[in-house]
TrEMBL record:
This is Bifunctional NAD(P)H-hydrate repair enzyme. Its cofactor is Mg(2+); K(+). Keywords: ATP-binding, Isomerase, Lyase, Metal-binding, Multifunctional enzyme, NAD, NADP, Nucleotide-binding, Potassium. Pfam families: Carb_kinase, YjeF_N. InterPro entries: Carbohydrate_kinase_pred_CS, CARKD, Nnr, Ribokinase-like, YjeF_N_dom, YjeF_N_dom_sf. It comes from Sphingomonas suaedae. It comes from the Bacteria. GO terms for biological process: metabolite repair; nicotinamide nucleotide metabolic process. AMP binds at K383, G384, A385, D386, T387, G412.
Length: 468
């Protein structure tokens, strides 16, 4: 099953898109030429998907609407039955030119369409990156109704009402659900950040002739993880120590996931009687338990508890020079104690843990993650339906949305163990976090039905095979 957004792709804000557009224009292109490319690209996709059915294109007053008029003209020239409905007259020169080149009738929108008079294929070209304020209820309601009634609904650039840079909702909770979104020139944050991302459906990028785009933010790429070679032994494949606590299941899951993600040796520091899987080496915790030089990474937090003993274990882990994955309970005990730590450190908070650690921030999830990474000096993974990975130097990625079945107990423990396995193999911390999230997401997508976290861990080898 493919991810819903392209992997390793640049993600540009509205301002960065305008800058790219300006560069293209300075190099000899024009808004009209870019719009022609965009509208033709949209028409090509719609033509393929419509298979002869009637298409209704909703056009807004800006250049997003302009793309819609171009698409209508190109589709009609190819014999596709097209209707156009517009929210007022075009306000930009390029959109007006595209409107003038459309020779068919233009219906009023929402007008008579507000009662749901749609076509089998609905194309939303009402608003794109230029939306700066809330959409009128009547407009948002009509788009949602029409998209819901269509057999196939496609958004041009963005679902109208999506806030480009934050992934927020200018549609006041009325964003329509689309089967697909055709991102023009590049992905925008709203294609990967919630709540907007879940309304996009499958996102595909249309090349509109902006040339190569450099972006600080990218979607996570598919990692390349080498299989063990003839020289490999259990320690070169990475030794992971999982520091457990009173909730044994959580640390067991992290340990199991570390093996399933390729670690050569997993030590579980909890004590207790041996039980399956016997490959996990169980030892009682002692203050010098992390002194073994062969330990390549320590995972601490899953099932750790929050009592004095847990604090003591965390102190020892922080004081060690081992690369660390800090998750779950350990995040609650941190209170700014990371300062001065030189060894690689990865924090994996979900939204609640993130807010408790770094406070309620402002700006998009991406900006908040970058800020937290800078302040803590750690790689910060803000988990969720739109997991963001940020490094202290400013590097940042958003993981492709994956299966919603991940929203179940234990999957965070599996992620911590997975990242630990990669970190123990000396993968640099940002790349270890990125690859771990990719493997975790790919395993979930492969199962894509109700599962236990144990089964997710057991699907990791299959995901690993896809990352060769
Ligand atoms: N960037 C590129 O390289 C290219 C992008 N293309 C397409 O252009 C849009 C962005 O176009 P833009 O004209 O900047 O903006 P929009 O079409 O998204 O919308 C702006 C118009 O909508 C009005 N507006 C804004 N908010 C509302 C609202 N809540 N209700 C009603 N009307 C609203 C706004 O009017 P103002 O009153 O604010 O002036 C504008 O008229 C991008 O997404 C791509 O689809 C090009 O086609 C190719 C190059
Ligand atoms: K749109």
């Amino acid at each position: 099953m493919l991810p819903n957004v392209p992997e390793g792709a640049p993600v540009l804000t509205a301002a960065a898109m305008r800058a790219a557009e300006d560069r293209a224009i300075a190099a000899g292109s024009s808004v009209a030429a870019l719009m022609e490319c965009a509208g033709t690209g949209v028409a090509e996709w719609v033509h393929r998907l419509a298979a002869g059915s009637e298409v209704l294109i909703l056009c807004g007053p800006g250049n997003n609407g302009g793309d819609g008029y171009v698409a209508a003209r190109v589709l009609a020239s190819r014999g596709v039955p097209v209707r156009v409905a517009a929210l007022g007259e075009p306000k930009t020169a390029a959109a007006a030119q595209a409107r003038a080149a459309w020779s068919g009738p233009v219906e009023a929108f929402p007008g008579g369409l507000a009662d749901g008079d749609t076509a089998p294929i609905l194309v939303d070209a009402v608003f794109g990156t230029g939306l700066t304020r809330a959409v009128d209820d009547a407009v948002a309601d009509a788009i949602r109704l029409l998209a819901g009634r269509a057999r196939l609904s496609i958004a041009v650039d963005l679902p109208s009402g999506a806030e480009t840079d934050s992934g927020g909702d200018f549609g006041a909770g009325k964003l329509a659900n689309f089967d697909g979104t055709l991102a023009l020139g590049a992905l925008k944050p709203a294609h990967v950040l919630q709540p907007a991302a879940r309304h996009c459906g499958a996102v595909r990028v249309i090349d509109i002739g902006l040339g190569s785009l450099d972006a600080v933010l990218r979607t996570s790429p598919r990692p390349q993880i080498a299989a063990p070679g003839p020289e490999s032994h259990k320690y070169t494949r990475g030794m992971v120590a999982v520091v457990g606590g009173p909730m044994h299941g959580a640390s067991e899951l992290a340990a199991r996931a570390a093996y399933r993600a390729g670690a050569g040796y997993v030590l579980l520091l909890t004590g207790g009687l041996p039980h399956p899987p016997h490959a996990i080496v169980r030892q009682r915790w002692s203050p010098d338990a992390l002194a073994d030089d062969r330990i390549g990474a320590v995972v601490i937090g899953p099932g750790l508890g929050r009592d004095d003993r847990a604090r003591e274990k965390l102190e020892a882990a922080l004081a060690s020079d081992r690369p660390l994955v800090i998750d779950g309970d350990a995040l609650h005990l941190l209170d700014g104690r990371l300062r001065g730590r030189d060894a690689p450190t990865i924090l994996t908070p979900h939204a609640g843990e993130f807010a408790a650690l770094f406070g309620a921030g402002t700006g998009s999830k991406i900006m908040q993650a970058q800020d937290a990474a800078r302040k803590s000096g750690a790689v910060v993974v803000v988990k969720g339906a739109d997991t963001v990975i940020a490094a202290p130097g400013g590097r940042v990625q958003v993981a492709a949305p994956t299966s919603a079945w991940l929203s179940v107990a234990g999957t965070g423990d599996v992620l911590a163990g997975t990242i630990g396995a990669l970190l123990a193999q000396h993968v640099p911390p940002f790349d270890a976090a990125s690859a771990g999230i990719w493997l975790h997401g790919a395993a979930a997508r492969m199962i894509d039905r109700c599962f236990l976290a144990d089964e997710l861990a057991d699907a990791l080898p299959e995901a690993l095979e896809r990352a060769r």
